[in-house]
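## retry 2 of 3
previous attempt timed out at serialization; input unchanged, resubmitting
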Amino acid sequence: MERIGLIGAGRAGTAVGAALAAAGYPLVAVSARSSASRDRAARLLPHVPVLTPDEVTGRADVVLVAVPDDAIAAVAHGLPLTTDQYVVHLSGAHGLSPLQGLAATPVALHPPMTFTGVDAVELQDVVFTATAPDAARDVVERLVKALGAQVQWVAEEERARYHAGLVHAANHLTTLLAQAFAVLEEAGVANPSATLRPLLTATLDNTLRSGHHALTGPIVRGDVDTVAAHLAGLHGRTASTYAELARATVDLVVADGRLDAGTAARFGEVLERYRTGEAPR
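## retry succeeded, writing output
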């Protein structure tokens, strides 16, 4: 098995490093600059020596550069890498461009998962996304398989689009829920999270299984007056977010034949008034 060296003891790096070590890969060393990183390394990688980046690199066959996105290029280009090594970053947004010109074989390997940095993370259900030259494919697939995970390959020119899809689904979901929590609290709901949990859990499960065919609610039913009443009770950014997502929902159900053109036009008239996020006058 390849020897793994970890540059940076952030949340993702320590999680992946700990998982590889648990799978039997020798994690030979980790570098950790801040006190928080050193504490995290001590907690999650207790038997791994903390060394300088140069020392970590000198001991490893695979060098994981687990640093913030904007620092990948500078950190990687400062390492004493050789042609016998692989240099791997864990960013979702970047492909191989931050690693261009290095002696080592470059790999972009992203685990689309959230990491707390507190506890070990199970990676068996994660589908890693990789971008790499053909010479690295065998090593990447072995590393991921050892974790019990899967790997998919994305072209260099599609990395930004790939990452946009993840952010839109995960980060923007948090924004949407924060808005929904606020609306429910204004309506007098004491515990929005408990109220929404069963509905959200079922909706997410159904959508992951059936895609947009899992849609239910007033737009699918053609309840224009209900949507108008919702918007009348909302304001500011939440109103415009609701309206924009409602427009996208109308498009989906028109495309699959569940909403007729006349009802879609009525929805359009109502939703257009809220495009700016301000209540109609």
